[in-house]
Amino acid sequence: MERMVGRVLGTRDSTPLxxxxxxxxxxxxxxxxxxxxxxxxxxxxLIQVYGTVGQVxxxxxxxxxxxxxxxxxxxILPGAVTEAAQVTATRFEPEVFVPPQPGQPVRVAEGEERxxxxxxxxxxxxxxxxxxxxxxxxxxxxxxxxxxRGAHVNISGISGVATKTSYxxxxxxxxFTSGVLGKAAVNTKALVFNVKGEDLLHLDRVxxxxxxxxxxxxxxxxxxxxxxESVGLYAPPRLDDSRATADVASRSDVTSFFWTxxxxxxxxxxxxxxxxxxxxxxQYTTVVYNVMAQLRKAEPTETGAAVVDGVxxxxxxxxxxxxxxxxxxxxDRYRWAGPAIGTGTINAFVRRLQASVRHLGRLVRAxxxxxxxxxxxxxxxxxxxxxxxxxxxxxRFVVGVTLKRAFxxxxxxxxxxxxxxxxxxxxxxxxxxxxSSPIKEVLLDVAERGRSLGVILVxxxxxxxxxxxxxVANSAIRVVGRLDSAEAGRGEYGWLPPGQRQxxxxxxxxxxxxxxxxxxxxxxVEFPFPAWATRVSEAVAPVEGTGExxxxxxx
Length: 555
Prior knowledge:
disordered C terminus; alpha/beta; Rossmann fold; 17 helices
């Protein structure tokens, strides 16, 4: 049954883009409600008009002074409370852009009308991204994710409040379980970088805090309230550990990862040691690429060690010392450092190289048996690479090298329909607005060319204003959680209408504002509490020897 809520207001201008609705007695409209009305043209043609509520105001009609409110409430002065809603038009069917006329009845759009108002009926392949305030699902067109008409997701918000990582994992879960991937679901993978604590190392475990109300919200979205089924976990080895044990405290089934010294030499990984804007501006970048050319000539051994310039190097310290000796040697300096390179430039290069030994020593080595077992593999549906125990230079190295290898493997496979979803938080650290670096170039390649290869970046950051513009601009889906008021005023959020920009500074965790190209404006969504553990305290561990979850764990 249609719910009539009011009529088009006659005391305010009505345009094809925006109009006001006087809310009827006993009715109400709230932000984000979807409404519909009809207008009959003089030709007899019927025009369906749809819109969403962006603002609601209430006032005393008949009051002239602020103090009149007391007199009206006491019945001394006549006056009535009126409410009016500002409606932004979203769709005209057919597309004849005429203003609604004052007095026309307005109703809440439900069912098929709501689908039309938000263009959901035009989405052949769609997946849920959250719930509207009325409990109905909200959808995103998959064609703006898989590269057909666009790709990439960018999420902004205050750390710890905006729930950026939780929403990113929810999107991945929705993609995997909604059926939108079709046959490609089997080989679609997600590569997730964990940058804070051990939060994402429990995606395969039930969340002990998930209650029946939240499970119902998954049901309303048509999704299972279950954790991720196929998860591979990787973490760096512990410092000074000859056995390369994974540096993780909360679980023991995590595989440590590192690169052999031969891989470091043959795959041109040296520039990723200097992967920040300051390094890129330095003169010793010439030395970096000259040394890289020499390392490329290295020969492998059975254990993964490299024979460089006739010398076998097993550890990163040995490799760094050999490079230092060659670039500073009078005999080898021209060949390794390059012609016309001053001593000061070489010493600057050496200082940075030697400073990285302490942090990279555990990540580049050939002193552990079966190094292939310690290679980051994308065999599981979701692969989590833990970075939280590494310093910033080592984090940039791991992200850059892992992405470079994954991107090249995807390029060789030529399977664009089977997506590789890359989830990376703190994007501003790896692709800052100013300067250039090897990792920034990799991320730009993903943003600009990844959609044709099926590599999709789900990037998150506190401040989009500090991220390379081309990466943000290439994101078809943009999302914000709670924003700082100063950040919300920046031009990077120009896609937010004024009301929603103001609203972004007060929204609660679990609420996001989502923009996609097919909808005329952003929509506010609420997503359910994660069904998977997002921190150690939430994880329900399997009962040993049974593979079952322990329902009493944590009680």
